[in-house]
Write a structure and sequence with these properties.
Strand content: 25-35%
Number of helices: 3
Radius of gyration: 16 Å
Largest sheet: 4 strands, mixed
Helix content: 10-25%
CATH superfamily: Carboxypeptidase-like, regulatory domain
Shape: flat
CATH architecture: Sandwich
Order of helices and strands: HHEEEHEEEEE
CATH topology: Immunoglobulin-like
Structural class: alpha+beta
């Protein structure tokens, strides 16, 4: 019964860069830092007054429709790579590529801090590309536009049994193909 929980949570987390319940062991030193780009959202877009979905942190940044409208949804770029946790490939894990925006940066920051945020606005999903790893932990996403992206994946760490999240920021040029390793 619990075998379906991780794929279900991962599927939800990858749509719109919503990361679900990452856990980090005490004393962990290696972390991927989120690079903040742009300015803080204007005060009128803050969402502190809205209650959080049960067990999740309320989003403080409202969906920035104008910021997303300036982005392309598809292009000729590609990102391929491998997801490794504890030095071992993670098979059949979800991987997402989401544009770096004030909205996705907030979700990434919370995920890396070990907190789940409320579900993303459905409009963000049109800009998020997803796939699954193969049996060797390899993945490939094509048809990506040029820009700055968060590439994220998660799975069960074989050494601890805990769910771990990995997020890397990647720049992709028009027609460019990038290779990355998502590892912890």
């Amino acid at each position: 019964m619990t075998r379906w929980i991780l794929p279900a949570l991962l599927g939800l987390s990858l749509a719109g860069c919503q990361i679900i319940e990452p856990r980090y062991p005490a004393g962990e030193r290696q972390r991927v830092e989120v690079i903040e780009r742009g300015m803080e959202a204007p005060r009128e877009t803050q969402r502190a007054d809205r209650p959080a979905t049960t067990g999740r942190v309320a989003r403080q940044v409202a969906f920035p429709a104008e910021e997303y409208a300036a982005l392309e949804k598809s292009g000729s770029g590609a990102i391929r790579g491998r997801l490794l946790l504890g030095g071992r490939p993670v098979a059949n894990a979800g991987v997402s590529v989401a544009p770096v925006t004030t909205y996705s940066a907030e979700a990434a920051e919370q995920a890396l801090a070990g907190r789940a945020v409320e579900p993303a606005d459905p409009r963000a999903r049109a800009y998020t590309h997803t796939t699954r790893t193969d049996g060797n932990g390899d993945f490939r996403l094509e048809g990506l536009p040029a820009g700055e992206f968060y590439v994220s994946g998660s799975g069960q760490d074989p050494s601890t049994g805990k769910t771990r999240v990995v997020i890397h920021q990647v720049s992709l040029g028009n027609g460019q193909s990038r290779s990355i390793e998502l590892s912890r």
